[in-house]
Structures
1.
Amino acid sequence: MNTFQIAKTFAMDLLFPKHCFGCKREGTFLCASCLNDISDKVEIQRCPACSHRNFTGAFCRSCQKISPIRRLLFAFNYKDPLPRDLIHALKYHGVKELASPLASLLGAAVRKNALVFPKHTLVVPIPLHTKKMRQRGFNQAELIGTPFAAEHGLALVTDNLIRKTNTASQVTFSDFKEKKTNMQDAFSVLRPQEFAGRRILLIDDVSTSRATLDEAAYALLAAGALLVWGIVIARG
Ligand SMILES: [Zn+2]
Ligand SMILES: [Zn+2]
């Protein structure tokens, strides 16, 4: 944080004492009892395309053709107000202390669905474009991904996938298959050898259209990654 951000955080604490986003009690942004309550409410995993309940988050065989990602794991539906408020507070109000409870909610979803990550899976947070990183001062996906990777004993890689454009360009999977060469435009991989042959878990706070995850996955696969899964706090 730069001096301005520190001063701003200090001023915000004085002006707006912390209240739990769940029960509104003063003292924390998410009290232990509310964290416990919503941990019990994490979702059963579904096919990311047709929402068929399957406990794995994998695409059905007939749905797979629409995405380069094999599974999209999620903790909540984006229309659930509490998780959405928590993500919003982290991302747009810089309430970084919410990153760790959000990571633990992902952990709760992993346990509830008995999901297992293959050994040596790499956790890769969706990067921000450098311009947005400068404006925001932090990458929420990285703040969530760091405790998540530690909890699951997985390595975290934050400096190999980079974002070249500021917004996802809505490339479709069939476009990708037709003209592989120019479809990794939104993201690029600096050191392909580090991802070659590896299983990668892309992590982000939210996925609504799946466009960002898909585009990042194209770049990872083009770099030689074996397969790509996605995991997000909230799925649209
Ligand atoms: Zn509470
Ligand atoms: Zn399906």
2.
Amino acid sequence: MRIESLQTFYQREMAAILADPDLAEAHAALLLALELGSARAAQRDAGGNWYANPWVKTAILAGFRSTHTALVPGWPSPAYDRTAFPPRSFSLADGVRMVPGGSSVRRGSFLGAGVVIMPPAYVNVGAFVDEGTMVDSHALVGSCAQIGKRVHLSAAAQVGGVLEPAGAVPVVVEDDAFVGGLVGLFEGVIVRRRAVLAPGVVLSASTRIYDLVNGRELTREVPEGAVVVPGTRPASGAYAKAAGLSLAAPCIVKYRDGGTDAATTLEEALR
Ligand SMILES: CC(C)(COP(=O)(O)OP(=O)(O)OC[C@H]1O[C@@H](n2cnc3c(N)ncnc32)[C@H](O)[C@@H]1OP(=O)(O)O)[C@@H](O)C(=O)NCCC(=O)NCCS
């Protein structure tokens, strides 16, 4: 099924699909299109704005709603999941090095050549992980998350999934960004190219990011090349003041320079 007709099918039949789906052919075409990268849950336009493709996200949801939980064949220990999204398998020709040991990549996700996945890691349906990206141990690439080229997702980085609502932009990490250990990105946050997030930075849609270089506050978006580290700010109100409380306040301490490149350079041989 060609992408245009698949898209038309889902857009036209949306209500009927969700009510009483007979999706086998369209679902198989959807998984293949996602895995080939020809259909994506979200895309960037020429102006750099990210927009969701609601038909893709609705199609994924239809898969969940139209299938039941069953034994997953071939898995080392008994596992039970929706039949719509079994684990993907790979061949040498895919150019993906998946180290054995508890990682799982769900069908309907795209992995570019040269992606490395260290166990245990999980890549969910609708995720797009572009060429040369490292997904380190305990990292999560949530449903529909869009990860660019040569990104480093350090150990335990959590990129949340944004499947519903269908029109919501998922979490995006653009090319050459460095996501430190234990970083959490949720609710459609966008990390622009070459940005660096130090270990422990957590960003959701309402987290205020303090740009110490330009004297401004930002939400939802980390600018290109920004270096963000965890910080704190006084919590507002008399009670908080009396109790000496602070809130998390991620700060942009600088924009990427040679020192940052040195601090984030990774051993090529590991790729
Ligand atoms: C974020 C990072 C890349 C910045 O490196 P850099 O560009 O060389 O930054 P600098 O060392 O010049 O630091 C700039 C400022 O940020 C502060 N800073 C740097 N890292 C920080 C952190 N993790 N938390 C709090 N503050 C931090 C520095 O103290 C300095 O502040 P100052 O100007 O007031 O002295 C680096 O500090 C870092 O955290 N590397 C970790 C890499 C990593 O996670 N590796 C895991 C691989 S699996």
3.
Amino acid sequence: MKLNQKETQLITELKNQEELCLQKYNFYAKQAKDPELKSLFRKISKHEQNHYDMLTELTNGTVPHIRTKSPTAVKYEPKATHPGDQACKDFDKFLCTDVIATEKYVATTYNNDLFYFASPEVRNVLNAIMTDEQNHAEMIWKYKVANKMAA
Ligand SMILES: [Fe+2]
Ligand SMILES: [Fe+2]
């Protein structure tokens, strides 16, 4: 499988986005006040690393194995765990809102970009990653609702 110039450029831009996601989740995992949110961010950051590695495989000319998809958001059942006062809660709420906006943007980018790829196998990979990003946004949204941060 060989990508053309346009496809290669799109994958390079997607890799930059995945790198930003990875950095953001690692950084926010350190910043978050609630340990439950820290562990959620850490878990998602591992998925973002997987995405980055899959895109690297594509640029090397191989179609990556689609790893077991991240556990669907359906199975994620967060409880009201936030230990902090209102200021701490507002802080974590901001982190959640920010990453949901990022996920929305990234998922939309995958959705737009995959139309440019000739190979159905490559489109399947990009589609699987897009579904992961939607799951990330949904899990964080569920955390917000459980912790009364959704309003
Ligand atoms: Fe990702
Ligand atoms: Fe994501």
